[in-house]
């Protein structure tokens, strides 16, 4: 693993590097982290399945942002630069998968729902040693995990990070203040471009309309607020929703959880 500003001790980093060097098709790595710790940008020579049995993670890659509750997992290809920020205490259960196996199930970063079966398979693999017995049950666990990943439906909770200077300015402002009500036409006056130009560039760079991108940014921000002790009605207002009911509908459509359920991930 290559890393900057790692939050883990040299002893634990050495342990993780042993998993990176493993010659097994996949290995599971368990570690618990306190609130607020961040990995800094780093990468692994193997593909990863990033998951937490409890707690919420905020993950950033070079071109996108993700929020991961315990109901979701993120697949990252080998050598994908990323950082992980713990939003509350997190019990991470991470899989490191040989690229030749990983490429059969996914070739790019994607989020998907973790079924009860996949959750138990992840936990089971994490209980196995890094040099697990190739003639035992573990190859079957790995095969089932890869099958579950391959058949899982991608959830469109990825928030692409626009690189064009004017779009980046708009995006950063929304990330800083999710409730910012300005339309693209409003932004056009401060960015030196027409609203039509900004709309075209936004879709070209992110694959999303401005409205879709802003909604996802608001919902991601709301999840963090809820998971770190937020009042639902106040959170809805803070991220720009005029009604709690509209917020609840959009939130559940995106994350598969109600705002109240998201809140209990931290408080319960």
Layout of secondary structure:
Elements: E1 2-3, H1 10-20, E2 26-33, E3 42-43, E4 47-50, E5 52-61, E6 64-68, E7 72-76, E8 82-97, H2 99-102, E9 110-113, H3 116-126, H4 138-151, E10 154-155, E11 159-160, H5 165-176, H6 184-191, H7 195-206, H8 210-227, H9 232-238, H10 244-255, H11 259-267
Antiparallel strand pairs: 1-3, 2-8, 4-7, 4-8, 5-6, 5-8, 6-11, 7-9, 9-10
Helix pairs in contact: 3-4, 6-7, 8-11
Q: What report would you give on this structure?
A:
Helix 8 runs parallel beside helix 11. This protein folds into 2 domains: 2-155, Jelly Rolls (Sandwich); 161-267, Arc Repressor Mutant, subunit A (Orthogonal Bundle), CATH 1.10.10. The protein has helices at residues 10-20, 99-102, 116-126, 138-151, 165-176, 184-191, 195-206, 210-227, 232-238, 244-255, 259-267; strands at 2-3, 26-33, 42-43, 47-50, 52-61, 64-68, 72-76, 82-97, 110-113, 154-155, 159-160. The two termini are 34 Å apart. Helix content is 44%, strand content 22%. The chain contains 11 helices and 11 strands. The radius of gyration is 19 Å and the shape is globular. The strands form 2 sheets. Strands 2, 4, 5, 6, 7, 8, 9, 10 and 11 form a 9-stranded antiparallel β-sheet that branches. Strands 1-3 form a two-stranded antiparallel ribbon. By secondary structure, the chain is of the alpha+beta class.
